[in-house]
Amino acid sequence: IEAHEPADFQDAIRQAYPQYGKKLEPLPPKNVGGKMVEQGTVNNYQFVSAEGQWRVSLTKGFIALSTYGYTRWEDFAQRLDRVVLAAFIETYQPSYFSRVGLRYMNALNKDAVGLEESSWRDLIAPGYLGLMGDDDSARQNFIKCEQTVTATMPGGAKANIKCGPGLLRKVDNRTRQVEELKVFLLDLDVFFDGKMPLGQVAGALNIVHDNAGSLFAGAVRRPLLDAMEPMDA
After folding, report:
1. Residue 53 in 3-state DSSP?
2. How many CB atoms lie within 10 A of CB 165?
3. pTM for the complete prediction?
4. What is the distance between the alpha carbons of residues 192 and 105, in angstroms, rounded to a whole number?
5. Which of 4, 13, 71, 117 is deepest in the core (most CB within 10 A)?
6. Number of CB atoms found within 10 A of residue 198's CB
7. By C-alpha distance, which of 201, 188, 198, 187 is closest to 100?
């Protein structure tokens, strides 16, 4: 992929993602003999939709579709399969994928749905609260209480789960003012790793999507679910 600029791939998706850019990003350090060694940098080619809500990222190690305008899984899957992956496979003809996954970064804002007087113990399942769910700690004002969990999931998938209170920075595009919102962060990264033939990718994505939905439903209690706007996950 880094042999030359991805002009053919850009042409294939230009109608849906007309804006192009390139970022030079550091690679994560690698453990070599017990010592963390820097691995240099990598080109991240980015293709963005006209309104800026959708982004395709392409490096020599991965391809990803991301959005902050997510509505329904069917719409996202169609964009990924029929446009992005179809163009990528035709252009680069990979033999297989080594990781296939979905990541949902949920910022749950109880104030925005009229539940500002409710505690997170009323809105989030106990297992996702950690110390925040302990009776002796109920009156403490937690600034940070993050849990990180890796678990196996039905269908052979795996999940990396991060959750806890945090701040969401919201920028007003007109005034450029920044507002900090207190939210509960629920970061769900569900994936398959290991060699996966191209023909099995669509089925794998449906499995990880179902698992992500089950995790979300198990984390959020009924009062918060009822207060949120109805939408298909």
Report:
1. coil
2. 19
3. 0.88
4. 18
5. 13
6. 13
7. 201
